């Protein structure tokens, strides 16, 4: 069993309205930040979750390093739309749209296939696709304002077609690429101390993977929470969708053991536990897992306060056990205790048996909670593969999400594709659309 840890930011929140369980998040009488720790049975997927049960004191810094504190509900926005009885969602990645016409076409096409929920990506790697006071514009727009607001158009179009829309945010990534950002105001350049660092102070190496921010640092948690604050305070999104809400280790040897080992993180760990990573490796793992849970809790709190009724969902690792063991993502714990309204397991496989096993593991770990199967339709090359997984979803109640829109329709990125490859992909898209339409 993990030992109790101490904390000061964030708070526990009750399970959200409309969920499939009447249970409530455990509370404590302590108003000074005591964290409750739940029993952990590692082998049977009874995953523990450490919840910060503090008073309502979350300080969300607009602009990152400074700004006002949490003060109230965002004014002037229509109410968030509730999750439907059957969620039919599609992921729309930041690479799928470029112009206002692209956005309108995506929404129209998605509605025509019967989707009722858009998971619309607005943050990738420390850059965003809406006008922000916190982070710069994404590379797709040359790191400059394109003269329109993609997210506002997407929200308006989604609602016009009777659809829900959740702002899809890559939570932990701070950059991706073999070279540093070409703009001075990107996180890699402005806050090098916020990234995962080893004992020698070196950050994760740049390459073909995300380098991530360190969720063990309170400043990082406040910063990331402020991004969600900005979104739900300014846009009529019906929810936020967390992706890469995990430790994204790089490919260097022993990355999980090497990161983070910076003095600030080790000082915080020793303050909370009186230990070092070497003296108690299990406590070190548990503490790092807990810091990510504290971040999810802070996001849940700010969304509930700024935009009551909006949902917090997460794209989670295909296997809850592997996500917990290897990436320190306690998705089943978050789901079971109400920190997230729904989990979207990324059960991306062309084998229906594996698909069933992934989803059933979540259903067993968090009974009566909302598990929305994520279908990796891009892996499906036959109608049977698509239909088998959709049929399983129907048997489980009808919820499903498709990854991604680009596997069903043409997207902005096609403009750079080779004609032969594009022709082949278009045939697959047509086949997949025909199957999805039947469900």
Write the layout of secondary structure elements.
Elements: E1 35-37, E2 50-52, E3 88-92, H1 100-112, E4 117-123, H2 150-160, E5 164-170, E6 173-177, H3 187-190, E7 207-212, H4 218-234, E8 239-243, H5 255-258, H6 263-273, H7 281-306, E9 311-316, H8 320-327, H9 331-337, E10 342-347, H10 352-365, E11 370-371, E12 374-375, H11 383-395, E13 400-402, H12 419-438
Parallel strand pairs: 3-4, 3-13, 4-5, 5-8, 8-9, 9-10, 10-11, 10-12, 12-13
Antiparallel strand pairs: 1-2, 6-7
Helix pairs in contact: 1-2, 4-7, 11-12
Key descriptive features of the protein:
single chain, 439 residues, alpha/beta, TIM Barrel, two-stranded antiparallel ribbon, 13 strands, disordered N terminus
Report the CATH C-level class: Alpha Beta
Task: Give the overall pLDDT as a whole number.
Answer: 88
Radius of gyration: 21 Å
- Overall, the morphology is globular
Whole-number total of structural domains: 1
Structural class: alpha/beta
Q: Determine the strand fraction and express it as a percent band.
A: 5-15%
- Helices, by number, come to 12
Distance between the termini: 44 Å
Order of helices and strands: EEEHEHEEHEHEHHHEHHEHEEHEH
CATH topology: TIM Barrel
CATH superfamily, by name, is: Glycosidases
- Helical fraction equals 25-40%
CATH architecture descriptor: Alpha-Beta Barrel
Strand order across the biggest sheet? 3-4-5-8-9-10-12-13
């Amino acid at each position: 069993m993990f030992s109790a840890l101490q904390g000061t930011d964030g708070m526990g929140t009750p399970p959200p309205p409309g969920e499939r369980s009447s249970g409530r998040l455990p509370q404590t009488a302590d108003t000074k930040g005591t964290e409750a720790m739940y029993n952990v049975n590692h082998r049977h997927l009874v995953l523990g979750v450490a919840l910060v049960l503090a008073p309502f004191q979350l300080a969300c810094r607009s602009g990152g390093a400074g700004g006002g504190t949490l003060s109230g509900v965002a004014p002037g926005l229509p109410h968030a739309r509730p999750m439907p009885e059957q969620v039919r969602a599609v992921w729309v990645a930041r690479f799928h749209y470029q112009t206002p016409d692209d956005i309108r076409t995506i929404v129209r096409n998605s509605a025509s296939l019967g989707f009722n929920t858009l998971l619309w990506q607005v943050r990738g790697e420390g850059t965003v696709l809406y006008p922000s006071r916190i982070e710069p514009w994404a590379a797709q727009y040359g790191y400059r304002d394109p003269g329109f607001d993609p997210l506002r158009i997407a929200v308006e179009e989604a609602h016009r077609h009777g659809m829900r829309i959740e702002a899809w945010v890559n939570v932990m990534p701070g950059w991706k690429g073999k070279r540093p950002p070409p703009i001075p105001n990107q996180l890699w350049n402005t806050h090098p101390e916020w990234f995962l660092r080893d004992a020698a102070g070196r950050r994760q190496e740049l390459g073909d993977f995300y380098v991530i921010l360190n969720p063990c640092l309170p400043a990082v948690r406040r910063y990331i929470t402020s991004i969600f604050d900005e979104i739900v305070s300014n846009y009529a999104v019906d929810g936020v969708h967390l992706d890469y809400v995990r430790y994204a280790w790089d490919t260097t040897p022993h990355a999980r053991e090497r990161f983070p080992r910076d003095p600030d993180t080790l000082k915080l760990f020793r303050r909370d536990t009186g230990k070092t990573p070497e003296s108690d490796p299990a406590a070190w793992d548990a503490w790092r897992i807990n810091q990510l849970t504290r971040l999810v809790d802070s996001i849940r709190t700010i969304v509930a306060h700024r935009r009551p009724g909006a949902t917090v969902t997460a794209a989670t690792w295909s296997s809850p056990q592997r996500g917990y063991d290897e990436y320190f993502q306690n998705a089943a714990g978050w789901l079971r205790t109400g920190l997230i309204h729904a989990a979207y397991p990324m059960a991306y496989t062309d084998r229906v048996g594996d698909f069933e096993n992934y989803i059933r593991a979540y259903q067993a770990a968090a009974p009566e909670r909302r598990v929305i199967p994520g279908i990796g339709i891009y892996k499906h090359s036959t109608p049977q593969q698509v239909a088998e997984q959709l049929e399983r979803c129907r048997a489980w109640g009808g919820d499903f999400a498709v990854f991604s829109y680009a596997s069903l329709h043409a997207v902005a990125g096609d403009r750079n594709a080779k004609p032969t490859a594009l022709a082949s992909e278009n045939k697959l898209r047509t086949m997949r659309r025909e199957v999805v339409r039947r469900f």
